[in-house]
Fold this protein.
Amino acid sequence: MGKTIAQKIFESHLVDTPFDGTYVLKLDRVFCHEITTPVAINDLLERGKDRVFDPTKIKAVIDHVTPSKDSKTATQSKILRDWARRNNIKDFFDIGANGVCHAIFPEKGFVRPGYTVIMGDSHTCTHGAFGAFAAGVGTTDLEVGILKGVCSFREPKSIKFILNGKLKEGVYAKDVILHLIGKIGVNGATNCVIEFTGPIVDNMDMEERMTLCNMAIEAGGTSGICFPDAKTVDYLWEFIKDEYKSKEEAIADYAKWRDDDDAVYEKVITEDLSNLEPVCTINYKPDQIKKISEMKGTKVDQVYIGSCTNGRISDLRIAAKVLKGHKLADGVRGIVSPATPKIYKMAVDEGIIDIFLEAGFCVTNPTCGACLGMSNGVLAEGEVCASTTNRNFNGRMGKGGMVHLMSPASAAATAITGTIANSELYKG
Amino acid sequence: MKAFGGDVLFLDRSDINTDEIIPAKYLTEVSKQALKPYLLEDLKLDGFDAKRDVPNKKVIITRENFGCGSSREHAPWALEVNGIYTVIAPNFARIFYQNMYNCGLLALNMPKKDIDDMFRTFGNKDCECKIEQKEDGTWKVKLIAGSLSKSYPFKLEGFEKALIENEGWIGFADSKY
């Protein structure tokens, strides 16, 4: 019987099956941030085990609340910082070098096809865009990962999406993933890896594939995965060029991870997305989807462009294209957060930051920011935000606030109009 | 192994997410105890009031996909420091489920028909739950309200059983890997 990419990755990383259906895998990467790692670090200290399995495989960043806003968050940052130094974790990104974890780690070339990756963060599934098995875990799993370099997982079942056709202009990866979550529901992929395949995905660049995989968790998926191909190699080439004689050789090597023709899936869902329109969420679950055209007249108070979902350079370019020459509507405040320092610099060099500033946006440092109401951009009771983030749970961006998730193009159009709107990049 | 069982809190809604269980703004705590006052603070459920309904409860019975959303282990911790060591549902979000067992807490998958029956029979009463192991090694949930009582079987085996017996994943992993 053939294997899926997830099964192949499991097989090549298997340390133990202590029980039927329970697989203990060795880890290629353990990623850490300042919110979920400190409790693990403190527990290891208490146990007299202040050590790590392999400092070269652990990467750490301060991203959720940065720079620190109060003593508590300063303490969390300090615990992470001191631990990284004590344990020789060279790839630790502090103030000035830090960015949103699922944007900065790919940018540094830390993920490879076929890797196993964990982090104490549910959007770790983002890294599956590189053909890795990348899963969010809790602090205890993270602690064992740090100490032993292993993690337990259940049977890696897979759901395969075959996405055919060609996206209309003005329709983006964010619209695709929101549509798919709306289709299968927030419980539709629980305990499954979601494979994104087909010409729609083949035509996406790595940043768009990261947007897709980022929200796999919102359908309950263990990870999202895209098959590695020439685009993956192009993205990673500066980091892998000493390992391969040519890009063709790398592409051929990475192809070993692809699904076998006779692999078995829980579900295969084929859909043509040529008629997909821009969409957004309503209410308090990411699977409550409506067309943007059906949301005309919905006023917003805030527009937020950024996050591990849509804070990358291609996202900012599209938003800037929509915003150019326009200003924020009366009564609307705009916040943009380039996801890493490199993206920020590119945006400055390309004149994108100028466009945002001219439009009247507040430009923040790279951070998770308003996404989870922990640091900046929090909503007041009764306020509404059009956001490029990934969750619209009740109270997420602020108690009593409402968040409508959408693409950067739609968010930019909404910023200009003052109500939820399609961008003029979308011609219907 | 912890002492499981006690008074029941019925939460009659599916897809209760981790932000509702413990809002992100409290994740700046590095102490589990500090989470205690905030459990279920943002839960959207008619008739529910966290300050009135949470104290002294030891067991939650709820609907599908409990704990969806974030990977935050703060969600099971917030339950644990409030004395709630057991959640019973038709199914759970993956990360939340694993986090519960990693902490030595019970996340019991039970058939939908049993959950429906629990709500129908006991949902509007003050109800106690006993978690019992029978002589043949099988387990059951026993719900009691006054003179009314009913039992529902469940399996605790394999990895879940090992984690409960070891009070979590760290002890188990540390001795084996």
